[in-house]
Amino acid sequence: MSKTMSSNRKLAFRKMFPRIYRIFSLIKDNKYISLEEITRIISREFGNTSVRTIKRDIRTLRDDFRMPIAYSKAKGGYYLYSKAEFPFPKLTEGEVLSLLITATILHQFKGTDLEKDFEGLKDKLELFLRDANVIPAEAIENALSIPFAFIKPKVDVRDKFVKILKAIRDKKSIIIEYHSFSSDQVAERRVDPYHLYNFEGVWYFCGYCHLRKEIRDFALDRIKSIRETSYEFKKPRDFDVYEYIKSAFRINKGDVEKIRIKFDPYQARWIKERIWHETQSIEELPDGSIIYEIVANRDEIKRWVMGYGKHAEVLEPESLRNEIREEIKKLGEIYKVL
């Protein structure tokens, strides 16, 4: 990179980095590639891009990064007149860590229906790390391990994923046949999809359900069929997807209420070490136990609390205490507890 390049131009380059790297790769891999062909490929991969922008990017490669790019009038295309590699910008330690985390997470999708897609992306990421002289590709897995526990879906969700993503992009409603977990019924629903997200390896999308007249979450592996429609929708201006997602304790977002739980000294140490939810508050008691207060979905909290056994006690609401009493009573019957 030219030492005279201004900080503003460096910032601009970082923003156009993927596109300019792709242009360099096209010229390197396709001798005498035409301007029209470069523009066609870049527009297809990055969105509509003008010939003027492509010309400017090539000038940047040639003038600022001193890439040996030339144009042959006789052949009607660009080529490299000497061997060259793309001048990757130096990565910060934080950027390297981010890339390594991404690489290790992608590796853990082996055995799922997305394995082929993620392995292809992982190969490209490893190539980048190697070309950038950051860390040898073969050392990535030995350098860092990020445990990423997730549930492997029994069904292939790729086709559904692509259709929903396209509907989100085009702002078009979809019709789905959905098997509801709560009712154990299959029903046809028209949904305006807003956002795709992953929770513990399971893909969901949230959107406005015309049947329930509210925003709902749908697991892709419980969708029996999906078809596109011509109905256009507008996402509400006040809908913030990140605020929506973080409102859940785990995944359920509806019917929240204030819940108070007492954790004994043994479990309190672990509970205090983490921020489980943004609404939480903790009152420490003299004996080392804590009162944990949260505003969340009661079904999720009930499952969470019961996982701690004798170390956790729901104090409020009384209705949730009664539900847990009934669960314990049924467990006693199952295990023949006197």
Automatic annotation (TrEMBL):
Lineage in the entry? Answer: Bacteria, Pseudomonadati, Dictyoglomota, Dictyoglomia, Dictyoglomales
Q: What positions does the domain WCX occupy?
A: 256-331
Organism name: Dictyoglomus thermophilum (strain ATCC 35947 / DSM 3960 / H-6-12)
Show where the WYL domain sits. 161-227
Q: Which residues cross the membrane?
A: none
Name the record gives this protein: Uncharacterized protein
One Pfam family from the record:
WCX
What domain of life does the native source organism fall in? Answer: Bacteria
